[in-house]
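Task 17 of the worksheet. Students: predict the tertiary structure of the chain below and write it out as structure tokens. Keep your answer in the requested format; marks are given for formatting as well as content.
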Amino acid sequence: MMPNTSLKKALDHLKSQGIRMTPQRHAILSYLCQTMSHPTADEIYKTLEKKFPNMSVATVYNNLRVFKESGLIRELPFGDDSSRFEANVSEHYHIICKNCGHIEDFTYPCITDIEEIAAKATGFKIDSHCVELHGLCVECQK
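Model answer:
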């Protein structure tokens, strides 16, 4: 289970916002709270399609949008043109294997001074940043 988004906490949050809990919605949220794999919407669909044969990819996308708008998940637009999703909404970074695409979370103190320097240099009002580290995972190094 992800450290910052327990399933019960997430379900309570949705209920407080008046969002009805369907079995599909529960399954998608539960999967995201348990996985460390940063799945795409298609991967989530493929994982759950046997349990929910009538669920469509559009259902997955629509529920991911609801969860994202509720602040329960983050959409990660990595360089492979496939948005990935995670329930860990704490400040952290990602390490991506150049060979197999495996993604791991990496915790490091937030580098907000870069935002301040960029804002002063450009006049932008910076509200976020994204850091991706790339290399070879332990398995691909073997």
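Marker's comment: The chain has two domains: 7-86, 93-141. Helices lie at 7-16, 23-34, 41-48, 57-69, 112-122, 138-141.
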